[in-house]
Amino acid sequence: MLSGVKAGLVSADVLRREQQELRRHERNNKHLEEESRHSETVFRDKSGRKRDLAQERLEQRQKAEAKSKRDEQYARWGKGLAQGRQQQQNVEDAIKEMQKPLARYIDDQDLDRRLREQEREGDPMADFIKKRKAKENKEKKEKPRYNGPAPPLNRFHIWPGHRWDGVDRSNGFEQQRFARVANKKAIQELAYKWSVEDM
């Protein structure tokens, strides 16, 4: 049998001897059992080297933290930085408004400033205020821009300098290029219409 005892019909002497042998064998292995009870499990990798589980857990935790930070950053980028700032500004404004009392009085400066900044249709002073704001903005240095007749188109949509006299001194390459692009587009459109004509 698997336990080492004989199978089938056996005498009492044989049975007694086998039991004594098993007890003696257990007593011999008792110290091994005590040692193994308090020992730590040794984990090994495929090549047979011991694995340091604490170090591996620490590395996994660091990788998980780095991955969560990266995912959080990508999530923030995916939502849009400007939208995130706008949302944060909206939250701050809402908190600021919640801290104010429910009843607004005539001497509330925030309400007064917000109402003054609103532009209403049919306001007779709106033109005056717009002109004053435009004058204030004009005082800030701006680069001069060309403001003559419409200049010829170019493929980069670059506006001419403010000193341009309006004379086209080009060799006509831009106009030829625009004509080629338009011709190619017209041919493609014609070919498409011809190919789906019978449908």
Description:
The structure is a single chain. The chain is mainly α. The chain has 6 helices and no strands. It has a domain of 49 residues. The two termini are 86 Å apart. The model has no long low-confidence stretch (mean pLDDT 85).
What is the secondary structure topology, with strand pairs?
Elements lengths: L11 H27 L14 H27 L1 H19 L9 H9 L8 H14 L33 H23 L4
Summarize the structure.
This protein has 6 helices and no strands. The protein has 199 residues and is mainly alpha-helical.
Structural class: mainly alpha
Percentage beta strand: under 5%
- Principal-axes geometry comes out as elongated
Number of separate strands: 0
| Beginning-to-end CA distance, first to last residue | 86 Å
Organism: Oceanites oceanicus
Pfam family, one: Bud13
InterPro entries: Bud13, CWC26_splicing_factor
GO molecular function: RNA binding
Pick out its properties.
CWC26_splicing_factor; BUD13 homolog; RNA binding; mainly alpha; Bud13; 199 residues
